[in-house]
Amino acid sequence: MSLYPHHRIQKACVLTLFLALIAGCGGVSQVNLRPSITSDTETVLEQDSGIVVAHVVNAGTAPLPFNFLTVTPKNFNESEKIKAERLEAVGTVVGESSFFVSSIPAGNYSVSNIMGYHSSGEYWYQRWASGDIELGTFSVKPGEITDLGTLIYYPKSQEEKYIETLLRSPGSTNKTLVQSYAPFLDYHPGQVLSWDEDGNEDQRFSVYAATVQNPVVYNERYIAPNNSVYFIGKLGFILQRTEDGDWIEQAVETDADLNAIAVNDEGSIAIGGEQSAIFFKKKEAEEWQTIEIPRPYVVADILFTADGQLDILMWHRKGAKIERINPLSPKNSVTQASYVPYWGWKTASGEAITPPKQKGYSKPTPELMQLAYVYSQAIDDKFYIFAGEKKVHGDSFPYIAPVNKRTTISYTQTNSKIEAVGKIGEAVDRTLDAGAIKLGIKKASFWSWTGKDKYLRFDKEKNDWIPINMAVNRCLGLTKKAMRCKVNGEIVTRNGYFSFLGIPVFSSPLDAIAFVEFTSSTSSKDGKPDLGIVTTNDGGESWTVISKELPGKYCASTIPEVKDALLVACSGMSSDFYQSTDNGKSWEHVRQSENF
Question: Which residues have CB under 8 Å from 463's CB, separation 6+?
């Protein structure tokens, strides 16, 4: 599991906290809350007001988006009556990024901060990052649109600390996002306002380029037919580890998150993610081809067909579908299956595969249901698609509220057949590649005090998911009645409980190695986290400590897709990688991030 930068999940009176939020956080004492504009009826502006649009990319490890953007007028300190303006994000955007479109009074402004604030019942989550004068200034004029392009939150590591940075993507615009979420705006790229010229574009581009090439987290890993492993994530960056252990960097022209990738036997590659686009390149081609998909869909997964077409799993809050596209003639696409919240999956011919189940005399509420996630997983030569729904009241999506409904189907490419599935989707939240086997995970809820996921192994004989034990026996050789023993002259409890820092990597159905953090009761005397490497030979029922040293500081994110070595990423702090060919006894630093 990645190491998170500072954010908080707390239990408190939400009303009081929300009032505090409106009053201002992060150094701003007074703010006007500016809701997002969601229809053309709301574009009737107040006198002397203009519209600001902005895209905020969350390039950190904490998954929730920043849903507030605060801008401060130039004359803010001249009077207590002058307030900052806090823009609220559009609530229907899918992913970890956010999009803002709000009206604010005309004037000259700078960015004060971005903030993520999410609540569910009596629990709340909050984090923020402050802007800097180096971001620049901008003007808002009556009746006009100011496009701030893309702002990027990036937790830059410096020694053992994070520096919460906010930077600009030079020259970026929000034309695509406006078309997806605010098509009613009279937006013409050559006529909108933007940042004031200050002569610092070259410096900004250097920082931006270094940020793109040094991600602290990847969204997806993928093993290609030629055994290359691809890492994709933020800001269009693609990292490839070849079968020979070489590293290749690529990028596509986007600031959006990349979530899906596929490579066929011929070497053609397709990549997709946010902002309704797929990037396609044949093996020998030098340039990427951009294929647009219907807005506001985002890409969840991509599959190549035997004849070189693409099956695209795409979704937004109000629907999902599987679309077959020929990358050489993408306009001639064919829908294979579709999904509508509450009503479930239907075939291309309209046959309901997962119809709603009415419970008792409760009134159906299809209009309240929205998709929280759609993802897929190949398990035992079958392709499964998982969907989760939440009830949504109002304009804001309840990110940390529990999922109300889960649905799972299997999809067969050869005949486009979809079938309802129960066991896999109901037993675990999702499945992950863990080397020789797949592991299921029960995701920790956002109000969990530990924040740690629970792993399960599927037992084919029992036809059930078996929890992976998270304790080591430190009193080896003693009877089970012995609850304590002496180790290196110190009395310790028999069971040393831990949580996983990365996915356990299985070399066989029963043998695995994992990086763990022991609970506070077993922490070291100097107060630092008690970390270690453990192994199992019985499928995770019992574990043995083989080392108390990690390959590098905070480097414990295992890469199970790599089969020829034990590869570990320093996820959350840098883009460094370490590799071991002797099952963790020694380590080689195989890729080092840039210090910028």
Answer: 423
- Which value, to the nearest 10 degrees, does the dihedral of the CA atoms of residues 186, 190, 191, 194 take? 110
> For every one of its 596 residues, what pLDDT tens digit does the chain have, with 9 covering 90 and above?
233 333 444 444 444 444 455 445 444 458 999 999 987 666 666 778 999 999 999 998 888 899 999 999 998 877 778 899 999 999 999 989 999 999 999 999 999 999 999 887 777 888 889 998 889 999 999 999 999 999 999 988 776 677 889 999 999 999 999 999 999 999 998 899 999 999 999 999 999 999 998 888 888 889 999 999 999 989 999 999 999 999 999 999 999 999 999 999 999 999 999 988 999 999 888 899 999 999 999 999 999 999 999 999 999 999 999 999 999 888 889 999 999 999 999 999 999 999 987 666 566 678 899 999 999 888 767 788 989 999 998 888 888 888 889 898 999 988 889 999 876 545 676 777 788 888 888 765 544 444 567 889 887 787 778 899 998 877 777 666 777 787 767 777 777 888 888 889 888 889 999 998 887 554 455 556 678 899 999 999 989 888 878 888 778 888 888 888 889 988 655 678 999 988 888 899 999 876 65
Q: In 74-181, which ranges are continuous DSSP H helix?
A: 175-181
For 463, phi then psi, to 5°, come to 55, 45
The span from the CA of 579 to the CA of 559, in Å, is: 10
Lookup: tokens for 510: 């029963």
Q: Is the peptide bond before 356 cis (omega within 30 degrees of 0)?
A: no
Distance in angstroms (rounded) separating the CA atoms of residues 102 and 322: 33
- Separation of alpha carbons 479 and 177, rounded Å: 64
CA distance 157 to 94: 27
Distance CA 31, CA 106 (A): 15
E strand or H helix at 21:
helix 14-23
Delimit the domains of the chain by residue range.
Answer: 8-212, 218-427, 467-591
Q: Give the type of residue at 211.
A: T
Q: E-assigned strands of 179-246?
A: 218-223, 229-233, 237-241
Displacement of CA 577 from its chain's centroid (Å): 20
Helix (H, G, I), strand (E, B) or coil at 281: strand
Q: The tokens of 57 are what?
A: 């990319």
Whether CATH 2.120.10 fits 218-427:
yes
Place of tokens 């109901």: 426
3-state secondary structure of 521: helix
- The CA-atom distances, in angstroms, between 424 and each of 322, 385, 405, 410, 593 are 20, 10, 14, 10, 38
| Alpha-carbon span 300 to 387, nearest angstrom | 11
> Residue 201 region, left (φ>0) first, then alpha (ψ -120 to 50), else beta?
alpha
Q: Is 322 helix (H, G, I), strand (E, B) or coil?
A: strand
Burial group, residue 321, by CB count within 10 angstroms (0-12, 13-18, 19+): buried
Structure-block tokens of residue 258: 């990349």
Query: Would you call 408 helix, strand, or coil by DSSP?
Result: strand
What distance in Å separates the CA atoms of residue 505 and residue 503, rounded to the nearest whole number?
6
Q: Name the pTM for this structure.
A: 0.85
Report the candidate in 175, 316, 184 with the shortest Cα–Cα distance to residue 254.
175
- Can you read off the two tokens belonging to residue 189? 């790229």
Q: Give the neighbor-by-neighbor strand order of the sheet with 417-421.
A: 369-379, 382-391, 405-412, 417-421
